[in-house]
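Below is how a single chain appears once it has passed through the pipeline. First comes the sequence as given, then the structure the pipeline wrote out for it. We keep one example in the README because the format questions we get most often are answered faster by looking than by reading.
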Amino acid sequence: MRNTWTHLYHQFCPDYCSRMGRVRLQVGPNSVWLCALMTVVVISLAVGCVSSPHPVYQFPLRKQTRYFDLHYERNSPQIEVMARFADGYINLINRDFFKPDFEYPIQVFVLGNQNRFENFVQRELHVPGPAGFGIYLYSNKLLATYEDSGLGTFTHETFHAFVERDLKSRPAWADEGVPTFFEKFYGYWKNDELVLFWGFQNPWRIRELGNNLTQLNLSEVLSDQNPESDESKLRMVSLFLWQQGRFRRFLKLIAANDKRGYASYFEAAMELPLEKIVSLWQNYLLDVDRRRAAILSLPLSTVFENEGEFRTFAKLHGISTEQVKQRD
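Resulting structure:
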């Protein structure tokens, strides 16, 4: 959303939570007073003030990587783990999806626990709570979270930066539909290269959709302009594109501002008009519904130190290691 200053990712568990919401602060063309208010907030974050010191002063531990500037409240074994994963994730996006034209680094502030994170968001970022697990501020290239929020929070929030910067002509549903795709994965390290497997349904989202799952109307989801739309419905569209081998193509077409003569990027990615996609969509929903029990038992997103450990884990939990080949 072009005029969005702030995106709030609000969830109560990275993989198993029962609900997620978000708060968007939007500035209309005539909202002069709100523009002035938000300018004050941004300036206070950038230069600090007497009553609200710059956040960096409260985070004595700092880890700089190629793409991120990580700030921690306290010493934690997660610092090196997250630093490695963070850069590995960006390298993976560059390699497997598209190369964002982004001005790094992304500032990341990691609080010791959820309570301290909530206080930080309200006191320093001036965003009313509850903040849940993570928050990304577009205008400041700033991601805030806490130590036990989960890898899915980080991957979801980080991708919001690329959606805003590199996918400017995206349809409204992709504001959340694309970042939510990246919140569920399994994988391993291959030397210094991160290997992740995508396309998994998120158990709590399927539980949240309930009996409405098979009734989702594709045309309505794609045309919905409501920024408060159910993210679980939007994520189903991205996963559908993935299963059709068209998700990467969808991203690249938006980045290139190229609909290939179709009415939408979705249709261009599928290389079919919408009316010919509906039956594929319905079959997809029915298949997900048939696999509901297995989906609800999926474990948390996890990254293993080597392929052997990952294969053992995948076999134990019945996780497919076959990836759908994506078209460009």
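Residues 1-53 have pLDDT under 50 and may be disordered.

See the next section for the split statistics.
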